[in-house]
From TrEMBL:
Domain Methyltransferase: 41-156
Bilayer-spanning residue ranges: none
GO BP annotation list: methylation
Pfam family, one: Methyltransf_31
Name of protein: Methyltransferase domain-containing protein
Superkingdom of this protein's organism: Bacteria
Classification via InterPro entries: Methyltranfer_dom, SAM-dependent_MTases_sf
Amino acid sequence: MNCQSATYVFGGNQNELERLLGQAEDLKPESTWLLDHVGIEKGWRVADIGCGPIGVLDLLSERVGLTGTVIGVEREPRFAAMARAEIAKRGLQNVSLVEGDTLSTELEKGTFDLVHERLVLINVPVANQHAIVASMVALARPGGIIATESWDRASFACHPEHRSWQVLNDAYREAVRSTNGDGTSGRTLPWLLRTAGVTGIRTKVHVRAVEIGDPRRIHRLGILDVTKDKILANGRLTEAEFDAHRNALAAHLADPDTLLIDQLFVQAWGRRPAIT
């Protein structure tokens, strides 16, 4: 196991690959806001850490233009293979992929105008979060931007409340904790940047009321499906109990009278200090 993270809790099967592609599309408005706000320029050299099968590679490619360079970094072989396929499929001529992580790749330090990660830190223990952010800072040029994005469950709720919502969320959080994930990492992003020496830190928080037909409405069901084996291995639920609760929750979320408030989506960014 490398220093970047423990075993990825969601696995690397086809369902997870498809979920990550869908998630990238779902989060495009929020990530577009961030990338537009930090002011990426044509010709920049940028990196997307833990890009998965696409991450924000397409958004970065558009912003830096053909005179710029985008490097995706991905340690999971299946995700890396899918990323290469997506890069080719979308004709992203200024994008390349490095297989590895920020702590083991041979990326040249101090050369990137922007180093970005989305939903990497949420899946690793705090000690590793510090190491990842420090490595991102090291990759950035003096004055370069470090940008982070993560979920925080502070706002996650449905109304009317439902027992299956509580039971399955408790079981999921236990499974995530068992592999070092943290559903509250969003609130720690500014602190992580500050402790790594990043300056001029800014923070933005997004949250949605998720309507029927929005893919985020059933996103938690997809997460439960890809973590089912881990949930069952923890012994909190039998398979029959899991399936019954999952079906009950699906029905509850399909009810237009159920209000679903999504998790906070937290963004924090700042700059590596310039050399004086």
